From TrEMBL:
Residue stretches making up the Electron transfer flavoprotein alpha/beta-subunit N-terminal domain: 24-204
Subcellular localization(s) per the UniProt record: Mitochondrion matrix
Residues involved in FAD binding: 227, 252-253, 266-270, 283-290, 304
The protein, known as: Electron transfer flavoprotein subunit alpha
Keywords: Electron transport, FAD, Flavoprotein, Mitochondrion, Transport
Its biological purpose: The electron transfer flavoprotein serves as a specific electron acceptor for several dehydrogenases, including five acyl-CoA dehydrogenases, glutaryl-CoA and sarcosine dehydrogenase. It transfers the electrons to the main mitochondrial respiratory chain via ETF-ubiquinone oxidoreductase (ETF dehydrogenase).
Taxonomic source organism: Microctonus hyperodae
Quaternary structure note: Heterodimer of an alpha and a beta subunit.
Listed GO MF terms: electron transfer activity; flavin adenine dinucleotide binding
Record-stated family: Belongs to the ETF alpha-subunit/FixB family.
Length: 334
């Protein structure tokens, strides 16, 4: 009933300009038990678009994730799809589910976080719907006008999307996370049934890196190291500092490429995008591709022995010093 109404309104431009009725589908990213923080940020973006919000939770035993979402204030409906087909959350199996859900409900917007999960999934969905996906939005001006960065974050572009269905990935650091357990009482319903097992791929296994440290993209403080560290062994200086600050550890691509640290620590255009309260860049020059991943941090501290290093142009506090002397001193004093 609601879907028909929304469709009718969208088909009548005069009417829809008087009475805009949006309905958004958010694809939840989760591990069956709990939600990824980027999904909470995506929900805030959905709220900003306006209208009804439906969340799709697909997994194997994803009841806990669905139940957490149903208690978030502002969500109207949680659709759950449980099947072995969704092991590994592969885009090949999730895409037909999303298309089937879209067919049934006719959403005006389909959103996911701009994480590896959302980036693999939504372009596929958009292609199947024959619409243009809009990646990594950082703001919403109106239900059809969105802001995103281009040229590695060097320019900001505002675009109006003319497609009937807007398919968007959302930058997690640009929207506050929607609170769960905030007095909501959304209905939990079954997503459209179907055989979603993919003929294209079969999930075999995944190995997730385990760490007691805060997760890089959601940590309140991040200490990152660059080529200036000179070896993986020397990163222990940063781990000691991070321990004092309860911080996550990140790295530049040069440090990752040199094998000092694993690539899931990379911050930047081709790594993770972070915006913590405090970002400490140690032995990092500040190339634009690195800045693209961290320049929205609230307070940036840079330690570099070269006073001309570009990182000092974005730093709130800069220390021109040899990191091998400055970092242990700083750790000692904390
Ligand atoms: C398409 C593309 C995508 C990219 N994506 C990314 C990305 O996602 N993330 C990223 O980081 N880079 C990315 N890069 C690479 C980027 O251009 C830079 O090469 C990289 O960020 C440099 O890393 P760095 O600052 O650690 O190394 P360098 O530029 O070599 O800087 C090392 C710094 O350490 C300082 N230093 C050295 N010794 C000391 C010391 N003892 N004490 C204090 N300071 C010291 C030096 O003064 C220097 O400023 C990308 C590049 C391309 C082309």
């Amino acid at each position: 009933m609601f879907a028909t109404c929304a469709k009718t309104l969208r088909n009548h431009s005069k009417l829809s300009s008087l009475c805009r009725y949006e309905s958004t589908l958010v694809i939840a990213e989760h591990n069956n038990e709990s939600l990824a923080a980027i999904t909470q940020a995506t929900l805030t973006a959905a709220k900003k678009i306006g209208g009804d919000i439906t969340v799709l939770v697909a997994g194997t035993k994803c009841g806990p994730a669905a139940s957490a979402l149903s208690k978030a204030n502002g969500i109207n409906r949680v659709l759950v799809a449980e099947s072995d087909a969704f092991k590994g959350f592969t885009p090949e199996s999730l895409t037909p589910l999303i298309l089937q859900t879209q067919k049934q409900f006719n959403f005006s917007h389909i959103l996911a976080g701009a994480s590896a999960f959302g980036k693999a999934l939504l372009p596929r969905v958009a292609a199947k719907l024959d619409v243009s996906p809009v990646s990594d939005i950082i703001n919403i001006k109106s239900p059809d006008t969105f802001v995103r960065t281009i040229y590695a974050g060097n320019a900001v572009q505002t675009i109006k999307v003319k497609d009937n269905i807007k398919v968007l990935t959302v930058r997690g650091t640009s929207f506050e996370p929607m609170a769960l357990e905030s007095g909501g009482n959304a209905a939990i319903e079954q997503a459209p049934a179907g055989d979603y097992k993919s003929d294209l791929i079969e999930f075999v296994k995944q190995e997730l890196s385990k760490s007691d440290r805060p997760e890089l993209t959601s940590a309140k403080a991040v200490v990152s190291g660059g080529r200036g560290l000179k070896s993986g062994e020397n990163f222990k200086l940063l781990y000691a500092l991070a321990d004092k600050l309860n911080a996550a550890v990140g790295a530049s691509r040069a440090a990752v490429d040199a094998g000092y640290v694993p690539n899931d620590l990379q911050v930047g255009q081709t790594g993770k995008i972070v915006a913590p309260e405090l970002y400490i860049a140690v032995g990092i020059s500040g190339a634009i591709q690195h800045l693209a991943g961290m320049k929205d941090s609230k307070t940036i501290v840079a330690i570099n022995k070269d006073p001309e290093a570009p990182i000092f142009q974005v730093a709130d506090h800069g220390l021109v010093a040899d990191l091998f002397k400055a970092v242990p001193e700083l750790t000692e004093k904390l």
